[in-house]
């Protein structure tokens, strides 16, 4: 029996035990049937939700690997952004996402040209102890279910060959190219900062200098036309006044 069938059998057995306990407590049969139906639908809803969430992670691996495995293939920007959004959604849903999700996101951000986000995610994968799988000893229920599904697929790769091919490809990329991707992302980030600094310096040099207010006054006075001489009648009157004073 596969792990999936074993889990279903265990849950079914738990439901049977609960129903048997209720019957021994002399609970009316209609109530027992009602609770059995409710428990069954709750169980199916939880199981379906877990499956959808984990399938979303593996589908993200498939899409990310398709973009990252061929560097020469040209992708539209929105295609990469849509896959990045899937990965970011996984980070929001899970308390402790698999480190491979962080690596795939970092590589996708680098492919999209966002060196800052790429450096952040890749540095977390390669420089943070919390991204080391061997140090994760208290997993969340979501991570536990993810690992259980991953191990089942590893034992039975023919069940989901495309998913297993994507997982192996991303893991191989993480081991062989991860450090180089991080170095390139940091170098690209440094180049972007240098370019911004150079543009700012160039803008300051090219900005026209405003003259000082005193210099403006001096220039205006130098170009100001001389005042016209007083009329001849005023000159004669001044001369006559001076003669009268001298007499």
UniProtKB/TrEMBL annotation:
<protein>
    <submittedName>
        <fullName>Uncharacterized protein</fullName>
    </submittedName>
</protein>
<feature type="compositionally biased region" description="Basic and acidic residues">
    <location>
        <begin position="235"/>
        <end position="247"/>
    </location>
</feature>
<keyword id="KW-0472">Membrane</keyword>
<keyword id="KW-0812">Transmembrane</keyword>
<feature type="compositionally biased region" description="Basic and acidic residues">
    <location>
        <begin position="204"/>
        <end position="226"/>
    </location>
</feature>
<keyword id="KW-1133">Transmembrane helix</keyword>
<feature type="transmembrane region" description="Helical">
    <location>
        <begin position="12"/>
        <end position="43"/>
    </location>
</feature>
<feature type="region of interest" description="Disordered">
    <location>
        <begin position="202"/>
        <end position="247"/>
    </location>
</feature>
């Amino acid at each position: 029996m596969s792990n999936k069938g074993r889990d279903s059998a265990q849950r079914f057995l738990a439901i049977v035990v609960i129903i048997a306990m209720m019957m021994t407590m002399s609970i009316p049969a209609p109530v027992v049937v009602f609770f059995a139906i409710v428990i069954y639908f709750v169980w199916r809803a939880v199981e379906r939700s877990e499956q959808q969430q984990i399938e979303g992670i593996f589908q993200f691996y498939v899409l990310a690997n398709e973009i990252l495995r061929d560097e020469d293939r040209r992708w539209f920007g929105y295609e990469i952004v849509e896959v990045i959004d899937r990965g970011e959604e996984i980070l929001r849903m899970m308390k402790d996402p698999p480190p491979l999700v962080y690596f795939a996101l970092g590589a996708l951000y680098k492919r999209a040209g966002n060196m800052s986000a790429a450096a952040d995610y890749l540095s977390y994968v390669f420089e943070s102890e919390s991204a080391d799988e061997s140090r994760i000893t208290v997993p969340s229920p979501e991570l536990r279910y993810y690992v259980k599904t991953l191990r089942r697929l590893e034992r039975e790769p023919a069940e989901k060959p495309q998913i297993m091919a994507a997982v192996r490809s991303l893991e191989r990329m993480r081991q062989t190219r991860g450090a180089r991707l991080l170095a390139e992302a940091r170098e690209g980030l440094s180049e972007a900062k240098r370019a911004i600094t150079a543009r700012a310096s160039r803008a300051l040099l090219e900005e026209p200098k405003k003259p000082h207010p005193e210099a403006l006054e001096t220039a205006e006075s130098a170009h100001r036309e001389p005042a016209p001489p007083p009329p001849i009648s005023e000159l004669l009157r001044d001369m006559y006044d001076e003669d009268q004073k001298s007499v």
